[in-house]
Amino acid sequence: REHVIADLSINVVERAVLECGHAIELKRPDYGIDLQIATFDGRGQVESGHVQVQVKATDTIARTAGGRAVAQRVHAAHLKAWLWDKELVVIVVYDARSDVAYWLDVQEYARATDLDAGRAKSVTLRIPVANVWNADAVRRLRAAKNELEDLYRRLRDGT
Known about the structure:
By secondary structure, this protein is α+β, with helices and mostly antiparallel strands. The protein has helices at residues 2-19, 76-84, 106-113, 135-157; strands at 23-26, 35-38, 51-58, 62-64, 69-75, 88-95, 100-105, 122-128.
């Protein structure tokens, strides 16, 4: 069953990306990133940067904060790598029983919560259930990625 829901979770992520007219690449081996999203502008031209995605799937979703969030444990080593990544990193957790996925911008979450992986082997992330993975989420992440790319471009150009 684990392999089936893992494939379903990838399919849920891919479908929303493709519905928005973007491309997605499966990373093998994944090393903490399963998918990479490439986005395109209104003329069909590829945009700089990517959205990196780690996907988790479960039949037993763990809710916290009175049901307003989903708890997901991740390897601290992966979290540390994601926090240093210059590209946007998102974790998507797929609830196979409800056929719904939730997403979290890991770097934004870390800044907002003062997240510290310390010496722990794993860290629990709290993903708001309002962050449903769908085409709107993809559009929002594309905009965030493009803002980040614009910031890097301005820093590089000294403007």
